[in-house]
Amino acid sequence: MLYVLKHPLITHKLTQMRKSTTGTKDFRQNLDEIAGLMAYEITRDIPLKNVSIETPVTAMETFEVSKDIILVPILRAGLGMVNGISNLVPTVKIAHVGLYRDEETLEPHTYFAKYPKNMDQAICLIVDPMLATGGSAIEAINLIKKQGATDIKLVCLVGAPEGVNAVEKVHSDVDIYLAALDEKLNDKGYIVPGLGDAGDRIFGTK
Fold this sequence. Notes:
- With 206 residues, this protein is α/β, with parallel strands linked by helices.
- 32% of the residues lie in helices and 32% in strands.
- The chain has one domain (2-46, 68-203): 3-Layer(aba) Sandwich (Rossmann fold), CATH 3.40.50.
């Protein structure tokens, strides 16, 4: 299922990121903040367990999160979303999936993968600022499913309908969360209106 998060602060900060005049520092800061705001919305239904604790005043019955959360950034742009989410949920574990897109075929290729041990018991958030053709997202989902992951959410800032449709066709069990659903892909596979090459803008390599 597709969820487009319409929070006013997310929309405002994404607008700042879209501007061609926004520099690396502000681009990265807004990305951190949006990632945290998105994580807040996405984790609303996270399961809890009953616990007994002692406050400074008395004993009480209350709740704690019952499942681990594992972030799976798609390298390299996905790294730009890690800080914002881990600041909100400091206990997250972080996997890494390195994929690059062939500029001719637009097909993804894996060059690195490293995972925590309990993928099958955790909530896995695959993070990448852009969902364009969907090829990298589909391959990342394939990879973590091979590790036993079943509770998977794909979290991106900006998506194109083509990418959303591609992921839904192959992985209908994965929820997709976007800050914005844009118009289309251009003939080079870039999202329109988009925000440019997220990796270059995050790391100042444009």
